[in-house]
Amino acid sequence: MVAISQSSDASSPLSRYQQFVAQGRLKADEGQAQAVTLLNALFQELANTKTQPGKGRWQKLFGRASSDVSATISGLYLYGGVGRGKTMLMDMFASCLETGSYQRLHFHDFMVMAHNAVQAARNADAADPFTHAAEQLIKAGHIICFDEMEVRDIADAMIVQRLFAALWNKGMVLIATSNRAPDQLYLNGLHRDRFLPFIEQINSRLTIHEIARGPDWRQQYLAEISNWHVKTLDDDCTVSLDAIFARLTDNEPAGPETVTIAARDVLLAKVAGDVADTPFAALCGVPLGARDYLALADRLAGLVIRDIPVLGDAEQNEARRFMWLIDAFYDRGRFLIASAEKPVESLYTGSQWAFEFDRTCSRLEEMARARFGSDTQ
Question: In whole numbers, what is the pLDDT of the chain averaged over residues?
Answer without folding.
Answer: 84
